[in-house]
Amino acid sequence: xxxxxxxxxxxxxxxxPGSTGxxxxxxxxxxxxQEPGVRKATAIVNGEVITETxxxxxxxLLMGPNRDQLPAEELPMARAQVLxxxxxxxxxxxxxxxxxxxxxxxxxxxxxxxxxxxxxxTPEQMSASLRQLGSSERSMKRQIRGELxxxxxxARWIEPFVTVGDEEVQEIITxxxxxxxxxxxxxxxxxxxxxxxxxxxxxxxxxRIVQQIRGGAPFPAFARQFSEASTAAxxxxxxxxxxxxxxxxxxxxxxxxxxxxxxxxxxxxxGYSILAVTDTRQILVADPRDAVLSLMxxxxxxxxxxxxxxxxxxxxxxxxxxxSMGGCGGAAQVASTLGAEMISNDQVQVRDLPPAxxxxxxxxxVGQATPPFGTSERISVLVLCGRDDPQAAGVPSADQIEERLxxxxxxxxxxxxxxxxxxxxxxxxx
Length: 430
Prior knowledge:
By secondary structure, the protein is an alpha+beta fold. The protein has 3 domains: 41-157, Triger factor/SurA peptide-binding fold (Orthogonal Bundle), CATH 1.10.4030; 183-282, Chitinase A, domain 3 (Roll); 288-388, Roll (Chitinase A, domain 3), CATH 3.10.50. It is built from 14 helices and 12 strands. The chain has helices at residues 4-15, 52-63, 75-98, 105-118, 123-133, 137-157, 166-178, 199-214, 219-226, 248-254, 308-323, 331-338, 355-362, 398-424, and strands at 41-45, 48-51, 183-193, 237-242, 261-262, 266-268, 271-282, 292-301, 341-349, 373-374, 378-388, 427-429. The strands form 3 sheets. Strands 3, 4, 5, 6 and 7 form a 5-stranded antiparallel sheet that branches. The longest helix has 27 residues, at 398-424. It starts with a helix and ends with a strand. The model is unreliable at 1-21 and 30-40 (pLDDT under 50).
């Protein structure tokens, strides 16, 4: 900070005739923001500042290109939710530090590098991508630090004190055997907590999140940022669950949801939940969609868009050639004759394919091809070269069941711990 005498010297130099060539008044009076390059604090959490810049960058990190699609009237609520998430993150980092749990810069950088690699980018490229979104490397690394700190705090002070009895595990194994053939669901969740005083606000926030996800925003990104459940770090993924594992309020909704659907906000004790059901299957029964296929794709590619008649003609040409080629062994010759692009993959799980192709491929015999499909620039067929059918799933081991119970109980304890941190925190909003 500049001293008073030095400020006087600067002021005198600026008002001296001919020193700048500017027509400046001797009595400077600032109008509006006197520090245009500094963002004011939005909240101070136990002495640690969260700024408008922090909120802006985290919101951009969360929504990516979808931020521009956010209606102006919903922006304040989204920013308020991001602020609450940043406050929780700050409390988690502070709680870990209070227990002398440290996360080094080197560890954060390593995690950041792995995350970049998983997105087929170098750390430098990832940083440039974040800046282009309006976020920053600093914002993502702060989130990484918060997640690592909270995981280590849980591992030291929560998870070791969770107990699971052998009788409980055996009871679940008995129930599993009794439920063979019934359905289980792949579920993801976003949980927004509320008190009696904030119920309406939490309901509105959950409703806005549903609207954004239905508008194309990614569920995992919203879960990581907004969900207050411990599954947030996994994008809200609960894994495969049976109806009896869910609270009654959620179970009643999940049974009515088809795969690929998103629920409305569901009122549960302590807040609201949003559920996404991504898949269903039967317990301890082999699912044909778990079959692993060996596929060969032949494609006729055009540099210019084809008319509908041209596309149909090329599709007919491809269909006739693949039907008479004698299976995958003749694919290379057909591709050469037609000038087709050929791609093969012998590790394709049926459930990973588009729904329109799943049942069709399951009905094919080895060597047969699907009807032509594609766009005006690429007409393709898939040829079935082989299939490994799935085996019926067995009952999870006692160790697996015990681990799942421990995780569920640790999650509940972690939520209570975070509520206590919020209650005891000194938070100054600006």
